[in-house]
Amino acid sequence: MTAPALRAASPKQRRSPAAAPTRNREEDELLGKAFDLAQRLGILAYHPLPAQIRPGRYVTAAQGSGAKGFLDSVFAGPGGQLFREFKATDGVVSVEQQRWMDMLAAGGADVAVWRPVDLLSGRISAELNGIRRPRKPVGDVDAFRAALEQIRDASPDAVSTSALLATVQQLAADVLAGRYHDLTGMARG
Q: Entry's InterPro entries (predicted)?
């Protein structure tokens, strides 16, 4: 026996009153518009769906020490990821949501709350467009300096001037392209 095919529901379908409880109409509409925009831009969007466990009782399946409070949605594109919580104009971030936001931000994630004003101002569109294309790699200046110090510290007999120049040119190109090579072995032997 095979499982029935599943199809992705649009945010509007997901939040129909018959299918699931409505948290807040303003948040649901904002979520739907953000998901529509993400789809038009070719960005992946994720939002967990609540399940009815008995009449009038809905839960979102989650497990782990941070099961409560995970943000509403995650968006992913070639240029990065966005973790977003959707709130109505007067919506308040819960303690658990703030804990997730703080932890994700501490790890370098792009985390924020989106409200209806953010759709009107163009912020949501700008942030989704910001992850639409791959980011250009930025050279690691510290890695470049460390590699130059390795070369400088090498014995002058170990590397000829032309080989040193070629190595520095290649190193500069690699660092600017986001690659770094440990030159210790080459410079010393």
A: tRNA_endonuc-like_dom_sf
Q: Which residues form the domain of 157?
A: 141-188
6 within some domain: no
Q: 108-111 contacts: CB < 8 A, separation 24 or more?
A: 109/81, 109/83, 110/80, 110/81, 110/82, 110/83, 111/71, 111/82, 111/83, 111/84
Q: Is residue 113 part of a domain?
A: yes
Look up the CATH number of the domain holding residue 116.
3.40.1350.10
Give me the DSSP letters along 90-159.
Answer: T----HHHHHHHHHHHHTT-EEEEE-HHHHHHTHHHHHHHHTTSPPPP---HHHHHHHHHHHHHS-TTTS
Q: pLDDT tens digits for 124-167?
A: 999 999 999 887 665 566 666 676 666 666 655 555 666 666 77
If one counts the domains in the chain, the total is: 2
Nearest to 31 by CA among 12, 17, 5, 49: 12
Q: How many C-alpha atoms does 73 have within 13 Å on its Cβ side?
A: 27
* pTM for this prediction: 0.62
- Residue 85 to residue 93: CA distance in whole angstroms: 8
For residue 169, what are the CA distances in angstroms to 52, 144, 157, 163?
A: 62, 11, 20, 10
